[in-house]
Each structure stands twice: as structure tokens, then as C-alpha cells.
Design goal:
82% helix, single chain, 51 residues, mainly alpha, 2 helices
């Protein structure tokens, strides 16, 4: 199955925003290692949009 470039961009931004929301929720619980992980993945997903 082939996806359009716009579909892939939308998917990656959705994943990035979801990871940011998870990081915020985890920060409220003070799970700092997991927050760092979610922030890493948010930047990872967003990074691929620009390639």
C-alpha cells in the first residue's frame, strides 16, 4: 500500500503531538525519565516531516 506524502506528514505530526501530550501528563506525575523518552520521540517524529 502506498501513502501520499501529505498522509505521512499528517501521521508523523499526529504522533509528535501525541508524544508531547504524553510527556506533559507524565511530567505532572514527575516521571522524568519517561518524559525525556516521550520528548525524544516527539522530536524524532517531527524531524522526519522535514526530510
Amino acid at each position: 500500500m502506498s501513502y501520499s506524502k501529505e498522509d505521512l506528514i499528517r501521521y508523523r505530526f499526529e504522533r509528535a503531538y501525541q508524544s508531547l501530550a504524553e510527556a506533559e501528563a507524565l511530567a505532572n506525575l514527575q516521571f522524568w525519565n519517561t518524559v525525556a523518552n516521550r520528548l525524544y520521540y516527539a522530536s524524532y517524529y517531527a524531524f522526519w516531516v522535514f526530510l
